[in-house]
């Protein structure tokens, strides 16, 4: 029998990928499924980006590139950080990977030793704990309760730091909660890290441009320049430019960190796709106006969905500040019984009930470390969202 490594046995498949797959399978089997699990914009990649990639193909840009990305793309990333975040990096301090996910993977695999701790504010993006575990580290979860806007509190961060802490991983706007940090809130967190020079900051800024109500985006190295020499700033084109399938993300940090990450990438995937890099170059250097238009559309959907959800008895939904998810609580539903006599004890039971009775696919809060919640993606049409809310209301009304 094939023996699976202990390393792999420590992790589970990505719950969001699995949920998407389950919805596709049920649909293929003839069920009428409304899928609200998607972690990607429903918009298409803009034409000017597609054209740049097509041009790259016809010009024969189909060979290996530098492992860390083409010099042009790394230069465009340098310009992006200067333009949007007031951060100065050299091209040698940039790594381009196959999605932001690979950049996170490279960083943890390069720096986390057996037993090292990584602070993961909860709710968290599903992959952080598993990548830490794969690297041999220990995820240390710090609760960010809804009463505190799902935001990491400086005193809770301070309490979680031990001599074994290697990283804090911060994600703003947050998937799944939509929480973001103002300048002052971010400064309070960076002040804590200034007192603990052995702790590095990983900031996952992938939803930077999906930000509502005229909020201003801030990133830790910009707020506290003294922390820049131990900060890895991660971003990518997946969410802002509707390019999830292209698989291009990037990270910026000190050379002492970027170099081992490039070494690891040189022995795993090598460079990310040359054609996708050409598309990403156009994304970063080309017109940016469509991003605000799309964010305005997301904001309209957010407002409609939150208003609708809060009218459903048993459901409470806060207003997300960014990203394209709502993360309502189903706490008041727990303990109720379905028509066929099953008790809904957990949000996992609730999510299954939605799928069974109404063909509505959403994600259970346990995947994000917060059991009595569930995640709905509003990166889909208003029509689908309305139908999804109708089904949710019916499924709740059927419980006693
Ligand atoms: N970080 C967060 C918070 C995400 O939600 C995602 C994708 O869902 C990623 C990173 C990975 O993005 P990419 O497509 O760049 O790998």
From TrEMBL:
Domain Aminotransferase class I/classII large: 32-392
Any GO BP annotation: amino acid metabolic process
Signal peptide span: none
Cofactor(s) named in the record: pyridoxal 5'-phosphate
SUPFAM superfamilies: PLP-dependent transferases
Gene3D superfamilies, per database record: Aspartate Aminotransferase, domain 1, Type I PLP-dependent aspartate aminotransferase-like (Major domain)
CDD domains: AAT_like
One GO molecular-function entry: pyridoxal phosphate binding
Catalytic activity, EC: 2.6.1.-
Descriptive protein name: Aminotransferase
């Amino acid at each position: 029998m094939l023996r699976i490594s202990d390393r792999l046995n420590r992790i589970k498949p990505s719950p969001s990928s699995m949920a998407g797959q389950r919805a596709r399978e049920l649909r293929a089997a003839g069920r009428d499924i409304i899928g609200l699990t998607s972690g990607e914009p429903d918009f298409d990649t803009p034409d000017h980006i597609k054209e740049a990639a097509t041009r790259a193909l016809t010009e024969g840009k189909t060979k290996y590139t530098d492992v860390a990305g083409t010099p042009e793309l790394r230069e465009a990333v340098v310009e992006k950080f200067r333009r949007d975040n007031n951060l100065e990096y050299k091209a040698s301090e940039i790594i381009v990977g196959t999605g932001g996910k690979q950049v996170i993977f490279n960083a943890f695999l390069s720096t986390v030793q057996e037993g090292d701790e990584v602070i993961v504010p909860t709710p968290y993006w599903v992959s952080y704990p598993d990548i830490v575990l794969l690297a041999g580290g220990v995820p240390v979860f710090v609760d960010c309760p809804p009463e505190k806007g799902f935001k990491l509190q400086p005193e809770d961060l301070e309490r979680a730091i031990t001599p074994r802490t290697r990283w804090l991983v911060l994600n703003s706007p947050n998937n799944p909660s939509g929480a973001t940090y103002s300048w002052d809130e971010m400064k309070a967190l960076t002040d804590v890290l200034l007192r603990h020079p052995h702790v590095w900051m990983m900031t996952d800024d992938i939803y930077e441009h999906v930000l509502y109500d005229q909020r201003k985006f801030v990133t830790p190295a910009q707020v506290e320049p003294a922390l820049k020499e131990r900060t890895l700033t991660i971003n990518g084109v997946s969410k802002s430019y509707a390019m999830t399938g292209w698989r291009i993300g990037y990270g910026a940090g000190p050379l002492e960190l970027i170099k081992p990450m490039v070494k690891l990438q040189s022995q795993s995937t090598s460079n990310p796709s040359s054609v996708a890099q050409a598309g990403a170059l156009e994304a970063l250097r080309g017109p940016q106006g469509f991003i605000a238009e799309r964010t305005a559309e997301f904001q309209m959907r957010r407002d409609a969905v939150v208003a609708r959800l809060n009218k459903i008895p048993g459901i409470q939904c806060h207003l997300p500040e960014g990203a394209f998810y709502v993360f309502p609580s189903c706490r008041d539903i727990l303990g109720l019984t379905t028509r066929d006599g099953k008790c809904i004890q957990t949000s996992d039971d609730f999510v299954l009930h939605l799928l069974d009775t109404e063909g509505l696919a959403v994600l259970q809060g346990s995947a994000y470390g917060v059991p009595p919640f569930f995640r709905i993606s509003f990166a889909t049409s208003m029509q689908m969202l309305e139908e999804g809310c109708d089904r949710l209301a019916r499924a709740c009304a059927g419980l006693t």
